[in-house]
Structures are given as C-alpha cells and as structure tokens.
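JOB MANIFEST
job_type = single_chain_structure
chain_count = 1
residues = 294
[input]
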Amino acid sequence: MPRALSKYTVREWFRLRPLVDRKNHARYQVRERIALARHASAVALPHIRGRKVLITVSFNDPQVIEWQTRLIAKNVPEAIHIVADNSTDPTARGAIRNICTAAGVAFVAVAANPWIGREKEGGKSHGYALNWVWNNIVLANRPSMVGFLDHDIFPTAKTDPFRMLDQATVAGLVRTAPNERWYLWPGFAFFNFGRLRTHRLNFGRDWLDGFDTGGLNWRCLYRKLSDQDLCPADHERIAVAAGVAMDEALFERIDGWLHESRFTTDIDMEPARRQQLLELKRCSILDILMALPA
C-alpha cells in the first residue's frame, strides 16, 4: 500500500500525489491478481507434503543453477529442492530444465508472468513468480517448512537453514523500512507453515511505501508477529575486489551462504561499467566455488 495519507507533504497533496500513488498501486495489484487467477494451476508434488522444502526462483542463468543444485544436494541433504523457473529466454529455460533433470531436482515453469520484458520490472516479475509458487506449489502441497532462495546464493558448507525455525515462525534476511517496519528479502526467506497465522501471503513490491519485493507481506503477516516469531539471519557484506567500492559491487554472506548479489550493482549505472563489474563478480564467485572441497 502507498504511504499513509498523513505522511504526504502539502506540496504532494497539491500535486494529487496520494491519489496517483493509490491508482498506480491498485492497477499493479489488479493486473497481478488477474494473471494469478487466470494461470492458477496446482502442481502435484506429493513427496513434499510435511517435508522441509527449498524453492529457488531461477531466471535466465543456467550456470548458477548448476552450482546451486550441486551444493544444496551436498550441503543441505535433508531438504527437498525445487526450481521454479521464471526465465524469459527459452534456451536458458531448456538448459535449466536439463540441469534439474540430471540432478534429480523438480523443475516447474512459472506460468505467464505479466511483468516480463524490462529489467526495471524485475522486482514485480520476481514477486509474481513467488506468489504463483506460493499458491500453486506451497499451498497445493503443504510442506512443513519452506524456504525461498535467489538463484545465485550458495551453501558453501554443511548447513541446516531450517534450524532457524525451531522456535520461530519466519526467518531469513531482514530488510528494514521507515517507521520500524521490516520484511524478509525473498532470496533467503523461511516460513514454518504450521505456525503461520495466515496463508494468504503477497510477495509483491510496495515501492510506494519503501518496500521492495516481498514487502507487501508486512501488512498481511509480518506486522502481526512478535519478536519471538522472527529469527533474523546473520548478514555480512563482502568486497568483490580491492579497489571496487561496495556501493558499486559486493557479495553477501547470509547465514553462511554466499550470495553473488547481482542486483546490488545498480541497473542505472553506466552500461559498460556495470557489465565490467558483473563479469568481475561472476569470475570471482566461480573462483570461490571451484576452490571448495570436493
């Protein structure tokens, strides 16, 4: 939802900003809900009922999926891994499907995303994919616990991320917003299904009120939780290379997992510089992964 009416300035009221914001937010939500309803299709995965499940939303990058599926199988052996593909490139989708088949990982194609086409709509596209997965995989199969992962985050050592839910309802990387609000970044977000007070979640963006993808869950879930219901993951920012400022490019360690963190490199940066940094990050992350013990 947009900001509370009391949070707008007099100048913004004269420019009708509260009305414009509400019109834009309503249009976004209506379009999304129509697409979700039109393309609802429950995916039968009976083997995940009552189990701990990791769901990766993949996007046009077979290389990271190949590494992630391999490392999750090795380092998170008690979890069932599913890849929900949100790719726009048919060649990439086919390659990701083949990787999943070879790895014994369930592959599900996200249906008819209405926000594909522009990189700047990536947050909306990711939010739609998460909502489609929640409705058609999670609610349809009812795992005991579910974790959502970005496709470029890797468990580099043995770990059990679901231990964070031993006493908590939700866990993961906490992002903050104004007025002491917060949400879980949906690239590392975990939910104890049986403890949730509502199953009607919304992983969409609420950029008009300071939230990115996943932020709409503040209103329907997070604001109703106590401190004991949340287990925040440890978080560390890591330099990519000497001489590269972290406001240009960085890696993250989240509960020990290594995150390439592609979109911390601003999409509005000068294109040649951004491409140079992305290539540096990919080379560096591959060096780290290839140096891991076999």
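[summary]
The chain has a mean pLDDT of 91.
The first strand starts at residue 52 and ends at 58.
exit_status = 0
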